[in-house]
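Lecture notes, continued. The same structure-token format from the folding unit now serves as the input rather than the output. Read the line below as a description of shape only.
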């Protein structure tokens, strides 16, 4: 058990570091390929990439070997973790017009922690037949949405660039 806890802590630290680096990757090297994995705008939606790609890598590494339910609980945990980040980010930034960076950091690290805690809860669910295929399908769907909305973002508050000088409430149609 100690080895698994140590492995999880190391994986969490690596995923957190990867998410932080992903945040700045597009700013440092702007190009369409990096826009797929790094936020190209300061929208709530674009920041899902900071969770999706590190958690995808963790699910591929932690779920290898085929023991137990394998990757399915890890893959399934990405969806609620990203949903929590989207929902809380929308409420804070769009509805309450919040701009504190500490909230963003706590939201990222908390959502990432949720992505690491949920696989243990979802493990029994993943014993059902077909759950692994559903997990891969949800992961692929979320990935496809990330790619599509990177290049074709809708004109809604969730996808609006919040880094402008104007207040969020004045620039976003709610």
């Amino acid at each position: 058990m100690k080895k698994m806890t140590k492995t999880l802590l190391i994986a969490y630290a690596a995923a957190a570091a990867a998410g932080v680096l992903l945040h700045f990757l597009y700013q440092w090297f702007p190009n369409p390929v990096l826009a797929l994995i790094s936020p190209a705008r300061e929208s709530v939606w674009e920041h899902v990439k900071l969770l999706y790609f590190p958690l995808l890598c963790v699910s591929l590494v932690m779920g290898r070997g085929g023991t137990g339910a394998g990757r399915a609980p890890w893959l399934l945990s990405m969806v609620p973790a990203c949903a929590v980040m989207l929902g809380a980010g929308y409420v804070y930034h769009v509805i309450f017009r919040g701009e504190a960076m500490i909230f963003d950091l706590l939201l990222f690290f908390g959502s990432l922690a949720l992505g690491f805690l949920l696989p243990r809860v979802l493990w029994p669910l993943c014993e059902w037949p077909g759950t692994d295929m559903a997990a891969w399908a949800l992961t692929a769907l979320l990935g496809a949405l990330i790619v599509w909305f990177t290049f074709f973002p809708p004109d809604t508050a969730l996808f609006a660039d919040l880094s402008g000088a104007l207040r969020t409430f004045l620039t976003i149609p709610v």
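Point for the exam: The chain is about 65% helix and 0% strand.
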